[in-house]
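Handout, tutorial session.
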Amino acid sequence: MMNNLKLTRGYMNNNPCNIIINPQLTFRNEIIPSKDKTFKQFTDIVWGYRAAIWLVKYYILEDNLNTIEKIINHCAPQTKNNTIQYIKNMEIFTGISRKTIIEPNNKDYIILIIKGISEQENGLIPDINKIKQAYTLLWNHYLKEFSHVF
């Protein structure tokens, strides 16, 4: 299966959710400059998943994009995607209704959303353990950064 993963652009870039290059937004272990002219690259797929988790949490917390429908309409607009089908696929891939409110600290839902986006973007079922590892990396960073609060 690993050989198949190398065939998709998202997996080649270690960016399985296909995060678009934005110079104002950089992530840990991002390769700068990216050799891909459109999408970010990361040193390892776990770091790509970590960036996607951070973005989804940001969208929920800061932009009130707290449903699959809102997240996908923002990230995969109809001008570039078949957004209606993308949202339907996300419901299938995640088992979460498009209108279900996603809390930013609902680890299980966040992991499923990242799994769904990765599956939609690459046409392959991702390794859920890599996504869980990425979630832990992000959470551990938060704990270190805000340890004085706890």
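The second record follows below. Compare its token runs with those of the first.
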Amino acid sequence: MRQARTALVAVALAAIPTRPTSGPVGTSAEVITRHFTPRDQQVARYMYVPFDVPRDTSRIGVSFRYDRADGANVIDLGLFEPGPLTLGTTAFRGWSGGARDGISVGIDQASPGYWPGPLPDGQWRVALGLYKVASAGVDVTLTIETSRDPVTASPLKLAARQPEPIRTGARWYSGVLHTHTVHSDGELTPQQLADKAVGEKLDFIAITDHNNTTHQLAPIDAPGLLVIPGEEVTTPGGHFNVWGLDGARAHVDFRILPGTPGISDVMRTATARGALVSINHPVADCLACSWTHQVPDTVSAIEIANGTAVARQQAMTMWDVLLRGERRITAVGESDWHRGNVPLSVPSVRVFAPELSTRAILAAIRARRVIVMADGSTPPPTVVARAGGQQARIGDDLQIRPGEPFTVAVDAAAAQYRGGRVAFVWNGEAIASEPVPESGHVEFERFGHADGYLRLHVFKADGTPLAITNPIFVTMTPSRLESPYGGSAKR
């Protein structure tokens, strides 16, 4: 979610390597002022200020200032090289949103959030995102500098990552899927974020900076930790994560107004590249953070544990509406970590996968083999549904005959579960509840009467949620299929 807009100019400048000391061959500067109104903010949202870049330019510097009017005006910053401004254009060079007042893009280096590389001559555009504009309007003053330094260009290379799979063996892997670094509005570098994840004994993290994937340029030394490249696509109609989107200058376009069809197009393009799409904080208390787009078929997951208790309950309701509409969307829970001393993994996910690799983790999320956990260290409960000699686990289908009994067994023996309760949820409604005994074993018996889905909610002794499973789907048609957990499951 969009955090308080703390000034990070010093962090951004510190992250830019020192340039050659021989000095620029030639530098030119231009100052441009534009006035924007509430109408501009509501109708267009993104404004583009053109400027010319001469041949042989090696660095472009852009800074901007405006009256913030005690938070009534908030303007975001981005950059496009010569080319079309159509949705999905390859002319996109980067985005820093409101995190920085100035950025630098050069042949050999760039500010976090922007891609270095050749600087084609012609008409570039500063992109201004009108997040908030006061009733009186706002003047935005841009200072644009271009220089010709003695810089030797080299091919753009992403930082090396450790080979995958990092570990083998089917198990529940612990991780977080929504984090931010200095490449958007987070306070840690990718290396510092990885160090924090290792300190919390996580198996994987996904880095999802707002509207860019330039964190891939930063080397990370964290043996044993899987780092999944991603992006939080921050549109005016809500935010969504894209996991597994790697490659130089990879990004998903965010300039999609609510009610326009572009949301389906950009999600389809991302999934065609093998990435996975998840709606973030569908109900939120910041401007344009709640989900107001449609939910295309390419959406695979939705956050249900991000924000206030009320927002989480509303997100859960949205998830159940989708499930009842036969949309088998995976629930995830994420900390949306930006800064501070709070853990990365509150909340987090457990993903049952055959190995620790980007491919395996994303495939398991698609298959709904996920438990949302309140923290990163509590062991997940074991859940098994049985009927007629067959069994199914989280994400599986269990097929039974009408009137046939089936049982759902939960084992939650870890100390964190003692004194708590387990709720049996059918089609989104909690219909039974049992205390967790000393053994940790709880069992529910039901009778098949209609197609539906079940899941389990496990609560601490004080009533706060500790674990929420994804569904097991119950159908009335006999069939059999092997479960990836071992044994057989009905589908």
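Points raised in discussion: Residues 309-324 form the longest helix (16 residues).
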